[in-house]
């Protein structure tokens, strides 16, 4: 191991330990480097790339490095933008840093130089941080993690904490920082190594809590009536579809700013509601997810790319015949657009208490941007997911809608309630009251969102952050239920898929459920999957998302296929307008108010940009999706990330689809939809560099 500072000779170097079998640093390079130092001792051994383990040698090395810490590891801070601009870093490392910044915000510190990546995340306010170092090949190789703290309580249990953090590492090839930080926070809270150790010993903030206090109850003790009241109140405060003018979706999920939005939809529901069938139909999966009428057909989550439909500007611009969307067409003048679909194991009553797959299922949802709750609209399967056939037709699908949402609610509620005492202690002690809000909001960031989002949700319940320390001390169980219910509507908005619409029993349930719920879609996943399978066999052609006229039978189709198509049209397509698969996914995405951009080289030709900035011959081929309220500058960054443009932004122009007029946009200008239409824009972005 050798240390070299600058090019001048440095006195007092510790012994240079060099192995003749070193495959990391060639022997001759070590000798040349040692020559830069005066009085260097040369210790040669027959091993590989290791350093002398003699205590005296290690002590001298430590002293040497400590004296030159500022030269070797400067504490100058870097920004996420500087990390993104560093071409030496892998895209995986850039994405992880950007995701961490959106979640931890001011709790994250990034150091210069940006390569290799060095960052720190606070795990105990200002008193303890986890420091991370990314080797060039990370995440294919592990990152280095250390604990930095001046707190005596943390230092005394340093080894235990780091052992817990190391055990939380994700497998090689996957980012680990988020999991390791969350484990550190959980361990600190669980073992009482908190800021509360600094409270006075006169009992100011340590007075005994009443034994009957609602926050001291067991997980199974939840007041269902209060929960129901809170859900109704949350629906009034934040009705479905109310997020259009908000920035909710900018501050949660797995995506990042300045890049295309890789949207993820999570499929939830009780076992055997048809989630895996819907998954296979939505993703056109060659290797289909397991399907069977019994619980837990799916154990590990299935994740595959799927498709939803988005309005195509070529319809209004009257150039459909010359437009060739890169992902293909959908019915009614729409175009297909990709997303990720995640099918997780079926949920059973009491999952939040550990029944079924319990929290393992719930944790699988954390990277979802929206949820599709798949309900068995036939009423044949019971709450446990056992299909009783026609004998089970008396089960009410609306009850499934209620308890599945409540399971997710209680998962979050019980996690927060278990740590409510830590919020109260900060609120009671005057010097720590400013930390009460940070503590409360921090209890929600593990669900992949920022503290800023939680603060906005908190204020939407009618409370003020300025008076939070005083307010939370008087909170009842209802107040926390209301906060969780509002958070759930913002973080995990749900669309209901009333599946098995092709069954005789379903129609009555579907009419009643749509009247009661509003945001519910009749779905026949089995019909959609069958159509795709027959299209693969060449028996028919099918335009996804279409009605009775979207199917064309080929002349070679067998008679049984013709009969099945006739029944499918009669039972599903003529009644509901489509199989509902593409519609339910589209609703799940569009309720998040994304921004769609078609970049073109010229408005007169509408020719799209392709990789490298070249124009395509077809019109409006390329489309990107970004988070709501994206700015022109973020569009440019996303185009640059996809290598559709090069250089710095010089000028941005927008073609108004409805009028045909062109306007110049400022770089900080926010892209908002015109009227009630989806936010679809045709833009011309000019930079100071031409295509290669």
From TrEMBL:
Domain of life, per lineage: Eukaryota
Annotated InterPro entries: AB_hydrolase_fold, G_OBG, GTP-bd, P-loop_NTPase, RWD_dom, UBQ-conjugating_enzyme/RWD, YGR210-like_G4
Lineage: Eukaryota, Sar, Alveolata, Dinophyceae, Suessiales
Gene3D superfamilies (alphabetical): 1.10.8.470, alpha/beta hydrolase, P-loop containing nucleotide triphosphate hydrolases, Ubiquitin Conjugating Enzyme
CDD domains referenced in this protein's UniProt entry, alphabetically: RWD_DRWD_ELF-like
Residue ranges annotated for the OBG-type G domain, each copy included: 263-543
PANTHER family hit by this protein: OBG GTPASE FAMILY, OBG-TYPE G DOMAIN-CONTAINING PROTEIN
Keyword DNA repair among UniProt keywords: no
Ranges for domain RWD: 95-191
Organism for this UniProt entry: Durusdinium trenchii
Protein name in the entry: OBG-type G domain-containing protein
Keywords: Nucleotide-binding
Family matches, as PROSITE patterns: G_OBG (PS51710), RWD (PS50908)
